[in-house]
Amino acid sequence: MAPELILPLAEHFPGRITYRGNGYFASIKAKFEAFNLTERVKETPFGVFWNANELKFSGVIVHQLLLRKMKVSEVKNDEVWFYVGKTEARFGRSEFGLITGLKMSGGPSTEELNTLCESDRILRDYLNNAKRVTFKTLWLAFEACDVADDVYKLGLCAFVEGVLLSRAEGVYIWSDMLKLVENEEKFFEYSWGLLSYQKLLSSTAKSMTDLRKNYLDKSTKDKKKGKKEKKITQPEAKYNVYGYAPALQYWAFEVMQIWGRSTGGAEGLDSLEC
Question: In the chain, which end has fewer C-beta atoms inside a 10 angstrom radius, N or C?
Answer without folding.
Answer: N
